[in-house]
């Protein structure tokens, strides 16, 4: 249990940005437990928002609700003003792409075919006659952006965890969404690939919500963060304002601080130690 009370959204000096996604009062119960408890967040248009919180705090569940894949018992998610739960699957998939944790694909598909799955919501016409004239070029560009062109003809079953993760990002890019939801996308990536992956995500002209465990990556790459604990929003806002020592101590049970990077024009997070659980 944390002693910190859920706090309101903090906005930076420039004020709140236009929100692309706005969730209000989300409550989800699973297996008799409340997994999301009256969660309200806004996600700034064009910004990268880190979704943070300890194991089991509700990050994946919230991403599924934001992406319209799970209906909350209570609450609503608006995407540019439209209720995500009421958008048809196809319309929703043209606007939101979700890369789930440990996402899989059929073993017999090639990497190019897996990336091509991102084009399904854009195909016009009936079964067997579907057309997507730009599809091939969009897939090739997405694969080049994620630097997996050399893997195009490899079978899914032969790809490493990191290569699969990059295929899924390329698939999501090929989907040409306005909002990209990523669930712990850096899990299988080495440090160099983690930095390349998140640098690319920042460059995409999209609104992005990314669940991360690595708080230094969140500090370096996210504009804003939402910190969950036990299904509740504990803090939300620009990184430096949200990730305060008291929040980090209370939610993560660590002594840590965000400060100016000693050499680079960005913030970084330094941790000292973990705190004993009270
Ligand atoms: N189908 C389910 N039935 C019962 N409980 C569930 C179910 N799915 C998830 N939960 C519980 O909901 C809580 C939130 O899970 P969720 O996967 O959203 O957390 P998370 O923050 O993404 O965790 P992690 O960082 O470990 O991936 C956890 O306590 C989990 O055990």
TrEMBL record:
Coiled coil: none annotated. It comes from the Bacteria. InterPro entries: AAA+_ATPase, ABC_transporter-like_ATP-bd, P-loop_NTPase. One of its GO terms (molecular function) is ATP binding. Residues 21-255 form the ABC transporter domain. Keywords: ATP-binding, Nucleotide-binding, Translocase, Transport. PANTHER family: HEMIN IMPORT ATP-BINDING PROTEIN HMUV. This is ABC transporter ATP-binding protein.
């Amino acid at each position: 249990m944390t002693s910190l009370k859920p706090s309101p959204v903090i906005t930076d000096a420039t004020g709140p940005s236009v929100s692309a996604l706005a969730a209000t009062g989300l409550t989800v119960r699973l297996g008799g437990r409340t997994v999301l408890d009256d969660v309200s967040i806004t996600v700034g248009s064009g910004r990268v928002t880190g979704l943070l919180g300890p194991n089991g705090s509700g990050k994946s569940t919230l991403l599924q609700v934001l992406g319209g894949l799970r209906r909350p018992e209570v609450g609503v998610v608006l995407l540019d003003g439209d209720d995500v739960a009421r958008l048809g699957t196809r319309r929703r998939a043209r606007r939101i792409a979700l890369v789930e944790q440990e996402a899989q694909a059929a073993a017999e598909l090639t990497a190019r075919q897996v990336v091509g799955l991102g084009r399904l919501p854009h195909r016009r016409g009936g079964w067997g006659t579907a057309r997507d004239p730009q599809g091939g070029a969009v897939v090739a560009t997405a694969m080049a952006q994620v630097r997996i062109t050399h893997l195009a003809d490899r079978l899914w079953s032969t790809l490493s965890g990191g290569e699969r993760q990059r295929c899924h990002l390329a698939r999501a890019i090929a989907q040409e969404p306005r909002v990209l939801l990523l669930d712990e996308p850096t899990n299988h990536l080495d440090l160099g690939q983690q930095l390349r992956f998140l640098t690319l995500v920042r460059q995409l002209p999209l609104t992005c919500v990314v669940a991360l465990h690595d708080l230094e990556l969140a500090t370096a790459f996210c504009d804003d963060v939402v910190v969950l604990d036990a299904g509740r929003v504990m803090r939300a806002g620009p990184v430096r304002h949200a990730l305060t020592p008291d929040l980090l101590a209370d939610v993560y049970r660590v002594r840590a601080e965000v400060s100016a990077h000693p050499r680079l024009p960005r913030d970084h997070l330094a941790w000292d130690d973990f705190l004993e659980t009270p």
